[in-house]
Design brief:
This protein is α+β, with helices and mostly antiparallel strands. It contains eleven helices and nine strands. Helix 4 packs across helix 7 and helix 7 packs antiparallel against helix 8. The longest helix is centred in the middle third of the chain and has 40 residues. The radius of gyration is 21 Å and the shape is globular.
Length: about 375
């Protein structure tokens, strides 16, 4: 998949990445067990502030994409992909994808004093910043109609704006401290608790990643970038987000496969383990091959983003078009092969199915990304 003369893709995990995985998995095992996640969503407050504090500040995961000179870890997309794998494995209700990936990438693309100050806050885990954009917005798709700024002439370059408008399907808006709002005069940082800002929760399929409609009515925001810079920064963030989402989908699929195999080894029918039946062996073998291929695709996307490869958009589109379906198939098999218990609310299988289904729509559907693959490869539509 690499272009001629480019460095070969590295799909293996480094020692540092393995250590990061161990730290994140240990944290999630201790603080994000399935019963705890179910309890939080039943209570209507899925976001776990203490878990986020330890993950973001204690481990330093929030600053992986932030350069060291700005208070971050100076790591890259490969390390962020490892974190997302583990978060997908635990369906952790934390705003990592929205704040530590999408918002961070947008702010890095702005290159203004205000965005730099906000990046320092994000890297330290002191703030949660979320783009006020639909979670379904995909790389290469037209941007939604921006919020209007009624404060000044667009060409005057105002330091602040008076913003009005509404954006639906904003992920993690309910737990955000700062919203990044695309307006007709540029990109603005708006405090989530500011006057004129309302966040209306929506009924989402995936209760671990809540959605909301953000409505602005004369809300004052700090201008971070002009319209052209803002759109370029958002486009880059969507590409990175889609590529790293494949790693979250990989983690979800891996958990489903592992738990299903373990269950079929212990569950008996006709005095035999279910896993000994040939038909089930074949289904699990096909699923294992799917997950192994998904790992290759997700790692290729993370490595292409980390190295700034010229074919990164193609690699990301391939990863999303494949990993999206694998996560859904793995979750469906998990529910079905667990039998009656897999259909209960008490068993966590439904959390993974809902996350996989919701992720299949986030940052572009598989069909959208297959269309991008066709465009990049110059294949005519049928």
């Amino acid at each position: 998949m690499s272009s001629p003369g480019a460095a070969p893709l590295d799909l293996l995990y480094s020692e540092a990445e393995d250590e990061l995985r161990t730290a994140v998995r240990s944290l999630l095992t201790a603080r994000c067990d399935p019963a705890g996640v179910l309890g939080r969503i039943e209570g209507g407050h899925p976001h776990d502030p203490e878990l986020w504090r330890v993950l973001a500040a204690g481990i330093g995961a929030a600053g992986l994409l932030v350069p060291e000179k700005l208070g971050g870890q100076g790591a890259g997309h490969r390390e962020a992909a490892v974190v997302l794998e583990e978060l997908g494995r635990a369906v952790a209700p934390v705003p990592y994808l929205t704040s530590a990936v999408l918002a961070t990438e947008i702010l890095l693309g702005c290159e203004s004093t205000q965005s730099t100050d906000l990046l320092r806050e994000l890297a330290a885990g002191r703030r949660i910043c979320v783009p006020a954009l639909p979670l379904t917005l995909a790389p290469g798709a037209p941007f939604p109609t921006p919020v209007r700024d009624a404060s000044a002439d667009p060409g005057a370059g105002p330091a602040t704006g008076s913003l009005s408008g509404s954006v639906s399907f904003v992920a993690d808006a309910v737990c955000a401290d700062v919203l990044l709002v695309l307006a007709d005069t540029g990109l603005y940082a708006v405090p989530a608790e500011a006057a004129g800002v309302s966040r209306t929760p929506l009924v989402a399929l995936d209760l671990t990643r809540p959605l909301a409609t953000v409505t602005l009515d004369g809300a004052v925001g700090t201008r971070l970038a002009d319209p052209a810079t803002a759109r370029a920064a958002i486009a880059g963030a969507l590409l990175s987000g889609a590529g790293l989402l494949a790693s979250e989908q990989l983690g979800t699929a891996e958990w489903c496969l592992t738990e299903t195999v373990a269950y079929l080894r212990t569950r008996h029918q006709f005095n035999r383990p279910l896993g000994s039946f040939q038909a089930l062996k074949h289904r699990l073998a096909r699923l294992w091959l799917d997950v192994a291929s998904a790992r290759a695709a997700a790692r290729a996307a993370a490595d292409a983003l980390a190295t700034g490869a010229a074919d990164a958009p193609l690699t990301v589109a391939v990863a999303q078009s494949y990993c999206s379906g694998v996560a859904v198939r793995a979750a469906e098999e998990c529910v079905q092969l667990h039998g009656g218990i897999g259909m209960t609310w008490e068993h966590p299988a439904h959390l993974y199915l809902k996350r996989a289904k919701a992720d299949s729509l986030a940052l572009g559907t598989a069909g959208h990304h297959r269309g991008l693959v066709a465009d990049f490869a110059e294949l005519p539509a049928p």
